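G., the chain you wanted modeled:
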Amino acid sequence: MSKSPVPTPHIGAQVGDIAETVLLPGDPLRAKFIAENFLEDVTEYNTVRGMYGYTGYYKGKRISVQGSGMGIPSIGIYSFELIHFYGVKNLIRIGSAGALSDKLDLYDIVIGMGACTDSNFASQYNLPGTYAPIASYDLVSKAVEVAKEQGTDVHVGNILSSDVFYSDQGFEDLKSWKKMGVMCVEMEAAGLYMNAARAGVNALAILTISDCPLEGKATSSHERQVAFTKMMEIALNLA
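Predicted structure as tokens:
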């Protein structure tokens, strides 16, 4: 694929407007919340499609936050453009997830070391087998260390990036992943990890448990937007 000029079709920024480290919340309003509550000297560089993007400073370090939407196709577009057209080197998804493991409850934090998926996103690479999307070890180890310094408990392990939110099979598919030790389900990390691996840059997903689908527990949409601050603080300290 040839490189296109900037601004891109989805990001209205110029070269240099975006930091080398970008936080990627799925919800653009979470990006806005982070910019307004954690960053200093903030510039809004994107409003295209209502997918807000901001660059500012956190503890003196330049960092950007960009909404990425829902699902692998959406984060696939935003992460690709950030990497290839804006020179981003560290991409950190900060999102919500549904707990599968009995060890997880609402508001617990999960670091996705690996990301299983039912998506066919990897088929574009024409690999002679099954690819295993994983996070960048440097970001995983640093996130764990930051969490310890903050006194925040985190769970590190395998997650699921699903293409389906409302499955025709109900929760039966999730139970199958659970028996393999998969901790939680979300919809983006595997695509992010693959884009980053192909480009030789770093990626990580830090997730907050927003619901426990097998138990019928859930947080509100407002809570998912503004209350997951521990996850945000871990990610911000990775810049």
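The radius of gyration is 17 Å.

Shout if anything looks off.
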